[in-house]
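As practice, study what follows.
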Amino acid sequence: MNAIAPQVSSVSVSALPSVAELDRALRDASPAEIIAAALKAVGREKLALVSSFGTESATLLKVMADVDPAIPVIFLDTGWLFEETLAYRDTLIATLGLKDVRSIKPAEEALSREDPDRELWFSDPDACCRIRKVEPLARALKPFSGWINGRKRFQGNARADIAVVEDDGARLKFNPFANVSREELEAIFVRAKLPRHPLVASGFRSVGCMPCTSRTAEGEDERAGRWRGRAKTECGIHTMKTS
C-alpha cells in the first residue's frame, strides 16, 4: 500500500479543488500520480474506481492496487455479462489483492417493469443500458465525491478528447489512462505478468454485455464489436451527470 494513503482524510464537496486546477496540474502526470492525487483530493472513503473487469481492466486495477488496494471498486453486474467476465473479476481480485470490490446489480423492480422478457437490449438498447448500468451506477456513486475510470483517448469517438479530470456534476471524475497508449497498456500487462481476460484469445478486444458484444476482425477499431450495426458507441455512464 502506498504510504500516503493513511495520511489522506476526507473533505467536503464544497472544499474540493476545482476541475480546471486539478486537470492543469495532472495533465502530464503518470496514472499512479493521478490516482494518488485523487486520493489526496477527496480521501479514500470518498473515492471509488469503476471497473468493467474487461479486456484492459487489469492494467488500471494494477496501478490502483499499487497505490492503495483498499480503494473501493464498483463493478456493474448487469445480468447480461459473460461468465468469463465474472470469473475474471474473481481472478483479478485474488491476483491483485483488491480489498473492496462491490458488485452492483440492477433494481429488480426496474427489471420487472421495463424488461420482464429480457428483450430490451434488442428493442431499446439505450433503455437497457439505463436500467442495467446508468441508474445502478448513479446509486452506487452517491456516497462518493470522486470516481476513477479507465477511458483512453486512443479509443476514439467520444473518448478522443477526454480530460484527465472532468466535472461529473456532484463529483470529480478522474481519467488516469487518458494519455496512455496501447503500447503502454501492453507493457503493464507484460511487466506485471497480469492474466488476460479469457475472451481475448477468442477474438474479443472489448467486452461488455453478452447480447451486445461481438468479436472484432483484423483492422477493426477495438470497440467495433460493441453494439455492432447500431449508431450507439457508449452505454451512457460516461455521458450522465451525477447528483
